[in-house]
Amino acid sequence: MVGVSDGQAPAAHHAPAGRPLLSLSLAAMMDEVHAHSGAVYLLSPDQPLLEMAVMAGLPRSFAAPWERVGLSAHIPVADAVNERRLVWVGGEEEMARLYPRIAVVLPYPFALAALPVATDGTVYGAVFVTWPGSHPPEMSDHERDHLTAACHRLAVRLERAAEHSVPLAPEPDLVGSPPVGGVSATLGTVEAARMAARLPYGLCSLDLHGRVVFANAAAAELLGVPVNRLLGTQPWASVSWLNDPVYEDRYRGALFSQQVTSFVALRPPGDWLSFRLYPSTTGLSVRITRARAVARLGRPGARPGDAADPPPRLVTISQVLNLAGALTEAVGVQDVVQLVADEIVPAVGGHAVVVFASRSGRLRVLGHRGYPDPHIVERFDGTPLTAQTPGVHALGSGVPAFFESREHLERLYPARHSTPDGFAAWAYLPLIASGRPVGTCVIAYTEAHMFPTEERAVLTSLSGLIALALERALLYDAKHQLAHGLQAALLPHTLPPLPGVKAAARYLAGTRGMDIGGDFYDLVPTPEGAAAVIGDVQGHNVTAAGLMGQLRTAVRAYTTVGQAPEQVMGSTNRLLIDLGSDLFASCLYLRLDPAHGRAVMARAGHPPPLLLRPDGRVRVLDLAGGPLLGIDASAVYPTTEVPLPPGSVLVLYTDGLIESPGVDIEDALAALGERLAGAGERPLDRLADVLVGHLAAAEERLDDVALLLLRAQR
User: Fold this and answer.
1) Cα–Cα distance, 532 to 651 (Å, whole number)
2) pLDDT confidence band for 295 (50 / 70 / 90)
3) This prediction's pTM
4) Which of 270, 303, 567, 617 is an S-S bond match for 563, by CB 3.0 to 4.6 Å?
5) Residue 454, SS3?
6) CA proximity to 76, closest of 127, 33, 117, 147
7) Tell me: the pLDDT tens digits for 184-226?
């Protein structure tokens, strides 16, 4: 390992040499401060990330999401390195508030400290250690001083190793795992095994990985699985009716918190069993008995995992992961509001939700669900951020507020007497993303509702997920509005009324999430009638849209000065080349003369237009043409004259209307012609809707679609 003086040092991954420096240092730190788990991270040699080198006290799988951590990630070890300071998280609620993504995966009571491993000039990595949930909320001076000094000593040793070119060997994790084997090997003596066998209740011993290393006969009988099939397995893997994430969650919670944990489970068809987990730093002892009190209740619809005394966990691991996945799919603000109403509010026992944000010094309602009268919520829209209301306070302070009853709320906020909303309890959750408040989520309950510590932590954790989704949604909506405004500015707001010609147009963007592209159309009055143009600039982004606007303006200018169709195409082609763009464009330009029943057309690599004749027949116009615009400055674009008697309809379109994966172009043109022939007598706007209807309803469009219809008047 070679240290560097620019503030970071790469981790070494070479041949083994010397003693296990990291493991010994970590074990000594944990022992001195009585921590029960921890890990050492080293900076990657070629990337801005931390890599877990060794973990102690708990299986590495518990920290699997954070084995490799980017320095930009908002987690304690990364913050410790970036800020060169000790990061302290004093418990479950503080973790939910400061690091909601960690709290969602590990919703257990524990304390954590993260420190940089650094000398004055070089950072080598970071260390974290954790304590059980019984640890005081504040760190002691002894713990702070010892960990700081120990991390500095480790950094000095790493610096010396680098100076002497001593590589660090891969080191095994320090997880106490008793050997999996017979009873005597586990309990130490045959007499101890006999004692356990005589007890009237089941006994199991699990190692830190959750594997059964001992089970007495009573446990095997209660679980319905022989001892030899239990040994070496995890109960939720070898006992089919324990195969539910809630039971693994209890095991993880007991190890993290080092607190006795219990739950009941239903062994089919109707036997309730009580499990009590006694954790230590070496594993778990599990006592299994029949839960007769639960069986006597005979609650209809009771589910495995419902606790006999305490209420079940508010949101299980599987629910949290499902909610997190769903929130990542939310696109706009209203998607987030609907998802919270559909998924999160029912999961936490709520009945209604409002999402607020701050705009121009006032509280704005972004969306709400579950209120029978929407005017009740809208009264809060526009509340000044100086007002004394719980929504304003949660948004400004970043601290969640829980009101168990109307009396509780009105005692603290008397103004709520005049604005009742019909509910009886509320959770005001600040939505913090990227270190700044983005809004407030209010969950309302129809009846008075207690908020125990565990539930408050879960709600606070969920608010972190909602905040991230809302931040993305607000950004999406802003981009959507910007793109929509840009596209609207570049395309004609309306088509001008023209004598002898009726027109209709449609535009559909192909880029989901931007609503902007390079397709364009225009209709320009001329002395003899009108000029029409439709084109497609390569790409579906702001660059393509900007270039499209320039081309549309150029075509209009060349038309206005009286250039013939072939000249308009040639001038536009040279302009595109002079602009120095790497993009090409297809284009179809025509000059309409309705008084003489004709149209003169020029084409540059564009799909051929369709002509619906007055007799109802459809013809694909085979026009002469030249190459795409922007390729050859000397290109020539010949013209074709087409008869256009009264009642005829010209269909100009871009390739997005007919191109789709796996469909032959000729078949697509034939299908378009059939739709045109079948609906040709309809008013032009309705005909336009028919021609693009199948694409307008599609969730995904691979390309932009522009359509311009021109009907010669009788």
Assistant:
1) 11
2) very low
3) 0.46
4) 567
5) helix
6) 127
7) 344 445 666 677 777 778 999 999 888 999 899 899 999 999 9
